[in-house]
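Deviation from plan, reported transparently: oxa(dethia)-CoA complex.
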Amino acid sequence: MSNCTGSDGVGPEAPVGIVATGSYLPEKILTNADLVDMVDTSDEWITTRTGIRERHIAAADQATSDLAARAAERALSQAGLTAVDLDLIIVATITPDMFFPSTACFVQKHLGASRAACFDLQAACSGFIFALETARRMIEGGGFRNALVIGAEKLSGITDWTDRSTCVLFGDGAGAAILTRSHDAHAILKTVMASDGNLSHLLNLPGGGSRNPTSEQTLHDRLHYLKMAGREVFKYAVGSMLNASNEALKQSGVKIDDIACIIPHQANLRIVQAIGQRLGAPVEKYYLNLDRCGNMSAASVPVALDEAAAAGRLKRGDLVLLMAFGGGFTWGASIIKW
Ligand code: UT7
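Because the crystal trials were delayed, the predicted structure below was used instead.
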């Protein structure tokens, strides 16, 4: 395994940060009009309550690792690296290809990243921020040079397409970032992470695990689908992302006015608006894709980050605030100097 500091000319003082990003959205698009034919809903309800107009849906033969690998290939190409340059792959997902092995191992196989240590990290919709910080610390600790961090989901596979309160919300996709220690990297300045397992009952997938192993009864009770108490989750999502963002700003000595772009978890436009008001950041500062993508859980933040970079929304030196909230509950925020 390579030694990442001091011996290769970049020097130990170079920050650990993002050198490239990539994303992938499946071809198939499911519109609100399509959903009207499936459940008792309306385009008007979905757009006014959530801001979502359409979402991408993976093909039947596409697993989460297939989406993840496509995003990773784009990030590798942008970084000018090959798969064997990677020594770490972390995939954040709640929709792994299988219980085991990890989706990261399937991505490794797909890419041919033979030198990489691979594992999955599960922090629901906050997974990418948690994985980014994990990889940053692993590089900083020594022993790892180039890390591939992916948030990828095939939520369509755990969505109850008969439940109008959840099926209109989610989409599939993958976003990737490559982290290394370099003066050219977009440095990750501060990350705040938090959890509250007491509230796990408000957002979960109850069936198929060791608590409720798959049985005819769990299938009959539809326990293998995602369940969410939307109104409760909404309340906590606003407060938690706000707190994490304020904490990350405070700890890094950055003022909200100094932030050039905010990339929030893309669950609901009303959540973003509520946070924006309280944080004192105008809506123009947010990069949003939820109208086109819906909520992609761990993939939401990295897909939006990649799109914002590609659209020229992030200029070198800009301060970027990432924030996320999800099942667990888990939540977090990151400040990156682009
Ligand atoms: O990614 C992890 C974090 N997740 C989130 O942050 C999601 C947080 N929650 C939300 O975004 C919102 O709570 C939802 C979008 C899920 C729901 O919006 P809401 O404004 O909280 O609606 P509600 O659940 O309070 O439901 C209001 C009404 C209900 O009817 P009644 O009881 O008032 O007659 C629902 O049955 O809307 C009804 N409803 C729908 N009607 C048409 C629920 N879903 C639908 C639907 N179409 N798809």
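The longest strand covers residues 172-181. We consider this an acceptable substitute for the interim report.
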